[in-house]
Amino acid sequence: MSEARLFLLQRLTALVMAPLVLVHLVLIVVAVQGGLTAGEILGRTQGSVFWGLFYGIFVLVAAIHAPIGLRNVLREWTGIGRRPIDWLMVAFGVLLLVLGWRAVVAVVGGGA
């Protein structure tokens, strides 16, 4: 993929992630201040299509966004060639996707 397309893709994923991060952080503050336990939170999220979609989308865009940014840092700060970094970041993105979706299934579906 061209540098211009990666630049655009990272900016588009940031646009999607910004409101998701904001909602996630607000929920954390509300849950902590409300004294909710982990069990109570899981009781509210299990079986919820909304929260499954919310966090599923969150995981997808984060798994695209983060490797692009890390790729740029590695290219600027290391002597590693472009191809190895690109393949390493593809693997990193897949890892984020798999682990993230496992977490979503565990929180929404009730099991790991």
Any overview of this molecule?
This protein has helices at residues 3-33, 38-45, 49-77, 82-109. The radius of gyration is 17 Å and the shape is elongated. It contains four helices and no strands. It has a single domain, classed as Fumarate reductase/succinate dehydrogenase, transmembrane subunit (3 helical TM bundles of succinate and fumarate reductases), CATH 1.20.1300.
Could you give a quick summary of the protein structure above?
The protein is an all-alpha fold. The chain contains 4 helices and no strands.
Please name the defining characteristics of this protein.
112 residues, mainly alpha, 3 helical TM bundles of succinate and fumarate reductases, elongated
CA gyration radius, whole angstroms = 17 Å
Structural class: mainly alpha
- Low-confidence stretches are none
Structurally, how many domains make up the residues?
1
* CATH class division: Mainly Alpha
Average per-residue pLDDT, rounded, comes to 92
- Give the helix proportion (percent range): over 70%
- By CATH, the superfamily comes out as Fumarate reductase/succinate dehydrogenase, transmembrane subunit
Succession of helices and strands: HHHH
